[in-house]
């Protein structure tokens, strides 16, 4: 292979080399200058930020301040977060050495050596943060933790904040003693669950009911162990975790030389439960449930924890109502259906969204699980402090909003609209009604009052798809995305919810809270405006005097969930069936306060592996509203301990107690007036688009209701419209006229006053055919004589019949047949047939004149020229040819007889008459 020759580059001159060196040097210098400027700018910016944080340092700010407290709308204080001993400071001299040793070993082993900043700890934490890709925590000294509690109670961990924390910690160490720092720390820090173990004094009382000075080694180690995660290591909540954590602290104390190995092992042998007093969190105090709701709301809305940041919190509590709810929670003057059932309720003002009362749980414990409210789902996923609430399946309690109000809003339905309660099947999903029946077409009010599932699902599907169960177009469907937005407009947290027809009857992915439900129904009560539910109107930070107006923020988030017209219409239906009564659950709310309500019951899935629960009741609800308030009540069981709900009685009873309590002084407000966009009108039931009734429409098919002006009844139905009669025959059979009509299609219209239609394998009531509005169809036969006079007219329920008429021999009759409505005017086309009767005809009739124990007398009516042969029990026979009486004598008392009769005309035609059966009575004994 031939080698390629490479051309050599010409050698550079010394001048060129020198020039290139200068250019490289210039570029390097420029880059260094830029980097220096960037570093300097970043340093100045970071340094300025840090300076702004630390410039106001004061020793006094580290001291514990007064507790947060709650006031009502009249500025009356009713609750303090410092009640029960919390926030009472203890001096360093009163803290036993064993407690000091345990805390230092657990939290900051070099505490008495460093200047507030421990470089080895920071480096260790920094390496962990680098691996994690961000500031994840760790490395803080006790001094830094005091600084954080005092200066950064709600801020995120950032490099700038961490730097400020370090500088302030060093400054604090220079201005205070180590003993003062440790004293501040132990009086500020959380030692357990809730607000009753903040500070060493409260913690000692909380766990051991003793003074701090008397704490022992196992008790001190337990307390020190809670500091890392107070909620997780509270032995009253997690005994096993607390035991393991205490033993770790004992190991650390041995490691750092505070106790011997023997002391360590002997203390580990002492069970934690042996050192504890009775469980102080077994029940909450007065207003505890409402206060916890307030604390959680403030934290979620502002990031401040009222237990850390002293503040005055103005709330909307109704103390009389809250006391009643607390009593219900604790079983005072109220008896639950069983000992394990849970309960939750929220009551709020319909026009403001202000929460006036909360029932968080049965036997509620401070900062315990709430069955009344829950945090934002997405936020709770990342913040453990927000995982305090249990949402539950709403069952039927939201049908008015999800199915029917949505139909008013998006399809412009009327309150007089009829919905289809017919089967819905999608794959394996085939729900049914609670009575196991199918009800066909019925009014929205009946569908809601009786809580029929299939009607709600079919209506929901109409809203989604724009087509009804029979494939008829009913408008423009909105689809799942718009339905999700619609529900979000009512305040429902739709995070990770996957919409489907099951939502119409309460089959949510994660469920709803009573707070969400009450706020949604408040929008129905106030004319369609959703106002975020809130217990807090404003807070004032006691350290600075800063006022945060939360209600202004809530009001800025008001939104129109429903048009005034749609809100008016669903409200009208819900209040009307409560007023009508007839149902025990709604009778209890018919108190004269114009209340609207909806109950609800959810079920466990039918395919649940636990067969004892499969298909059984799980949740019970009652949601209600008046012009003044909206409230929702749930009863059921903890999701970790599911059980069968025996009945919905507790939800119903608690809802009624709430109604009576909040309306003691009568109503303060009235519902918004009728919107101008709705009018009262009448239409024919079940017909859509709506048609106005005209003359002749049966009264039972005329319904009245509220209509949006954009969708009022049009046209008018007057007079019947029947199918054409295709064929009709009339003939003389044995002296009687037999008629035969072409069967009416559909035949169901001749069988019942309510029309029906086939839906799959089912035959269901169906009112949607305008040709069927006049009720039951009958077959009519009219008989006219030779002069045209109608001598007989008969309505028949079957298409083949023998007329109840005896024609006269020798006459000719015209028989006319047609279809007609049983209770309305109008006929089909009429067809006629001619029938001629010969001189003699069959038509003998007879009746009993008298019967004794030995004698029977019959009256015989025999057509002229005919004769009748009679035989009794196949024996004695008689033949008569004229009308008159015939007597059978010498009969045996108490004996059954049968008389057979055969009629013969002069032309020799015969007919066997119906036999006459009788039994002679017992013979009477003459009196002595």
Can you describe what's shown?
With 928 residues, the chain is an alpha+beta fold. Helix content is 30%, strand content 21%. It has 22 helices and 34 strands. It has a 5-stranded mixed beta sheet with strand order 2-1-3-9-10. A 5-stranded antiparallel beta sheet has the order 5-4-14-13-12. The protein has a 4-stranded antiparallel beta sheet with strand order 24-23-26-27, with no helix packed on it. Helix 12 runs antiparallel to helix 22 and helix 14 (399-411) packs across helix 20 (564-580). The longest helix has 41 residues, at 14-54. Residues 1-9 and 39-48 have low confidence and may be disordered.
Features:
disordered N terminus, 928 residues, 34 strands
Helix content: 25-40%
Number of strands: 34
Which segments are poorly predicted (pLDDT under 50) over 5 or more consecutive residues?
A: 1-9, 39-48
Separation, N- and C-terminal Cα atoms: 160 Å
Mean pLDDT: 87
Question: Based on helices, strands and strand pairing, what is the structural class?
Answer: alpha+beta
How large is the radius of gyration? 45 Å
Largest sheet features: 5 strands, mixed
Proportion of β residues? 15-25%
């Amino acid at each position: 292979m031939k080698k390629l020759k490479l051309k050599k580059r010409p050698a550079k001159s010394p001048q060129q080399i020198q020039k290139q060196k200068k250019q490289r040097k210039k570029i390097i210098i420029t880059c260094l200058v830029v980097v220096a400027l960037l570093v300097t700018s970043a340093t100045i910016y970071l340094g300025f930020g840090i300076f702004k944080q630390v410039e106001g340092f004061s020793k006094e700010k580290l001291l514990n301040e007064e507790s947060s407290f709650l006031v009502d709308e009249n500025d009356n204080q009713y609750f303090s977060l410092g009640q029960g001993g919390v926030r009472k400071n203890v001096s360093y001299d009163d803290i036993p050495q064993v407690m000091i040793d345990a805390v230092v070993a657990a939290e900051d082993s070099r505490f008495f050596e460093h200047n507030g900043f421990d470089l080895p700890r920071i480096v260790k934490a920094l390496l962990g943060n680098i691996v994690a890709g961000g500031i994840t925590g760790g490395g803080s000294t006790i001094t830094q933790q005091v600084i954080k509690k005092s200066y950064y109670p709600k801020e995120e961990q950032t490099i700038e904040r961490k730097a400020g924390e370090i500088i302030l910690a060093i400054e604090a160490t220079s201005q205070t003693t180590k003993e003062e720092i440790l004293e501040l720390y132990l009086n500020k820090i959380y030692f357990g669950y809730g607000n009753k173990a903040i500070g060493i004094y409260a913690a000692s009382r909380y766990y051991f009911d003793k003074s701090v000075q008397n704490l022992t080694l196992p008790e001190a180690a337990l307390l020190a162990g809670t500091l890392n995660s107070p909620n997780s290591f509270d032995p009253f909540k997690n005994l096993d975790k607390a035991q393991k954590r205490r033993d770790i602290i004992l190991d650390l104390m041995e490691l750092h030389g505070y106790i011997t190995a023997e002391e360590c092992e002997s203390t580990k042998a002492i069970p934690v439960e042996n050192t504890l007093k009775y469980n102080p969190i077994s029940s909450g105090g007065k207003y505890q449930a409402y206060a916890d709701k307030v604390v959680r709301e403030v934290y979620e809305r502002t990031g401040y924890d009222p237990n850390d940041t002293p503040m005055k919190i103005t709330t909307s509590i109704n103390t009389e109502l809250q006391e009643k709810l607390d009593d219900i929670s604790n079983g005072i003057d109220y008896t639950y259906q069983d000992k394990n059932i849970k309960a939750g309720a929220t009551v709020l003002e319909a026009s403001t969204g202000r929460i006036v009362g909360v029932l968080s749980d049965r036997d509620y414990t401070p900062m315990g699980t709430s069955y009344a409210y829950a945090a934002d789902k997405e936020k709770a996923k990342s913040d453990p402090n927000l995982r305090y609430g249990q949402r539950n399946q709403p069952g039927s309690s939201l049908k008015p909003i999800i199915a029917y109000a949505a139909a008013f809003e998006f399809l412009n339905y009327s309150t007089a609209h009829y919905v289809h309660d017919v089967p819905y099947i999608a794959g394996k999903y085939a729900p049914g009604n609670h009575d196991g029946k199918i009800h066909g077409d019925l009014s929205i009010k009946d569908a809601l009052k009786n809580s029929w599932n299939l009607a709600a699902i079919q209506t929901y599907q109409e809203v989604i798809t724009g087509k009804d169960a029979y494939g008829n177009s009913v408008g423009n469907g909105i689809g799942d995305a718009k339905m999700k937005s619609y529900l979000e407009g009512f305040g429902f947290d739709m995070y990770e919810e996957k919409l489907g027809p099951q939502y119409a009857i309460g089959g949510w992915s994660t469920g709803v809270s009573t707070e969400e439900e009450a706020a949604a129904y408040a929008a129905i009560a106030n004319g369609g405006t959703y106002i975020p539910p809130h217990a807090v109107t404003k807070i004032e930070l006691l350290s600075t005097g800063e006022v945060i107006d939360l209600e202004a923020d809530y009001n800025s988030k008001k939104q129109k969930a429903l048009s005034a017209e749609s809100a008016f219409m669903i409200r009208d239906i819900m209040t009307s069936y409560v007023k009508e009564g007839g149902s025990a659950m709604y009778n209890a709310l018919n108190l004269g306060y114009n209340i609207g309500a909806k109950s609800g019951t959810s079920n466990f899935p039918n395919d649940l592996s636990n067969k004892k629960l499969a298909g059984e009741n799980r949740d019970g609800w009652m949601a209600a509203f008046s012009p003044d308030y909206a409230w929702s009540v749930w009863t059921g069981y903890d999701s970790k301990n599911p059980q069968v709900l025996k009945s919905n009685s507790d939800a119903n009873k608690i809802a009624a107690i709430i109604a009576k309590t909040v309306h003691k002084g009568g109503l303060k407000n009235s519902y918004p007036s009728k919107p101008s966009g709705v009018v009262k009108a009448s239409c024919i039931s079940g017909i859509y688009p709506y048609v106005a009734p005209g003359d002749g429409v049966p009264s039972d098919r005329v319904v009245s209701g509220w209509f949006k002006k954009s969708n009022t009844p049009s046209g008018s139905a007057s007079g019947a419209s029947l199918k054409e009669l295709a064929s009709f025959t009339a003939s003389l059979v044995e002296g009687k006229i037999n008629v035969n009509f072409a069967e009416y299609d559909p035949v169901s219209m001749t069988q019942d006053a309510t029309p029906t239609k086939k839906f799959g394998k089912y035959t269901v009531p169906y009112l949607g055919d305008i040709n069927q509005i006049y009720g039951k169809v009958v077959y009519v036969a009219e008989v006219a004589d030779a002069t045209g006079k109608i001598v007989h007219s008969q309505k028949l329920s079957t298409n083949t019949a023998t007329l109840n008429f005896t024609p006269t021999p020798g006459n000719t009759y015209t028989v006319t047949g047609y279809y007609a409505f049983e209770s309305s005017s109008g006929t089909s086309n009429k067809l006629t047939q001619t029938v001629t009767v010969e001189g003699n005809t069959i038509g003998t009739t007879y009746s009993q004149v008298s019967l004794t124990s030995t004698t029977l007398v019959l009256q015989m009516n025999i057509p002229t020229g005919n004769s009748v042969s009679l035989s009794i029990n196949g024996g004695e026979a008689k033949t008569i040819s004229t009308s008159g009486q015939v007597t059978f004598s010498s009969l045996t008392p108490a004996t059954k007889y049968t008389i057979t009769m055969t009629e013969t005309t002069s032309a020799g035609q015969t007919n066997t008459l119906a036999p006459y059966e009788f039994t002679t009575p017992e013979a009477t004994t003459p009196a002595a």
